[in-house]
Amino acid sequence: MKFSDLGNDLYTGKQSIPVVRRRARFYLVSLILMAIAVSGLAINKLNLGLEFSGGSEFRVTSTSVPSDYEATAREALGAADDSQGVRVSKLGAGTVRVQTERLDDAESARVRTELAESFSVPEENVSATFIGPSWGDSVTKQALRALVIFIVLVAAVLAIYFRNWKMALAALIALVHDLVITVGIYSFSKFEVSPATMIGFLTVLGYSIYDTVVVFDKVRENTNEAFANGRMSFAKAANLAVNQTLVRSINTTVIGILPILAVLVVGAIFLGPGTLLDLALVLFIGILVGAYSSIFLATPLLVSLRAKDAAVVELDKRSARSQVKRDKESRATAGAGTGTGATAVDPDGLVEDPERDGVLAASGPMARSEDSATITGRQVHKYAQAGPRNQPKRPPKSRRK
Q: In the chain, what are the domains?
C-alpha cells in the first residue's frame, strides 16, 4: 500500500491506529524514558560550557593542525587527562580550542607561550579569553528565566485559544516530557551545553507546541461534532483526530529533520564543535522527541484528563445508544436482504454503516445482496430491476389491426 493511500485511509477512518485505546503503553514508555533521563541528570550532570561554568579559553590558529592535536595541547599544559578540567577540541580545519579552569594573568601568559611552541606558531596566533563565574551565573539565570516565561505564556495562550484548561495542561505535560528527555540525552552523551544549546531548547519547545496545537485543533473539531450528533465517544473522536493528522506530523518531522541532519553531519565532520553544531544537535534530538509526544502522548493525556467530565460521560452514553441503534438497523437491513425481515430504510435510502464511523451506505431499494435484492419487503431475483417491470411497447395506432 502506498503511503498516500495509508494517509487517506487514516483520514477517512477506513483504517485506524488505536493510539488512545493503548495509551497506557505510551504512558509507560514515556515514564521509563523520563526516569532514565532524570537518573542521567543525577549521575552524570550536564556538561556545561565555558559560558556557564566560567574559566579560560585558548584558541590556536595554525595552517596545519597535527593529527594528535589533543595530546599536543595537553602536553603543553601538563594535563595528562581531563581530570584537571582541560578540554581540547578542533574548530574547523585550522583552529584548536583549549578550555581550562580559571587562570590568572601570569598563568594565562605562560600557557599561551607553551601552546605557541608546541604547535610551532607565533604567539600572536594564540588568543586567550577569560570568562568569570559571575558572568556564567548571569547567563544561567537568564536562560532559566526565559524558559519559565516561555512556559507561562504558552500555558496562557493555549488556555485562551482552546477555552479549556485541560487542553493546555496536556500540552504542557507533553512539553515538559520533551524537555526532560532531551536534557537527559545530553547528560548521558556528555554533549556540551552552550548558549546556542539553550536557544535550541526553546526552538524545540516551540516546535513541539506547534505540532501539538495542530493535533488539538483537529481534536476540537472532531469532538465538537461528536457533541453535536452523539455518534462518537470523546475518545473515539480524539483518536480519529490523531490518525487524521498522523501523516502530516510525520511529513513535517521528516522535512524538518533532513536539513538539520545535513548540518549535523557537515558540522561533525568538517567544522567541529561550535555554535552551528550545538544548535543542530539539540534541534535534531528535540524534534524527534517532540513528534513522538504530539502524536502518542498529548491527545491520550487529554482523553484521560477529560474522562470524568460530565459532558464527556454523557457523550459516551449517547454514542453507545447510537451504536446500538445502528447495529439494530444493520441487522435488520441484512435480514431484509435475505428475505427474513423487514427493511429499515431512512427517507433518503441511506443508513449509517457502524463499521465506518458514520459513513452513509446504501440501503432499501439502493442496496444489493449477493443473491437477491429486497424491494418493499418482497424478495426478488438478483437481476430484477428496482423499479416497475418493463412492459412491451404497444405499436402505434396506425399499425394496429
A: 3-47+135-305 (1.20.1640.10), 55-131 (3.30.70.3400), 310-381 (no CATH)
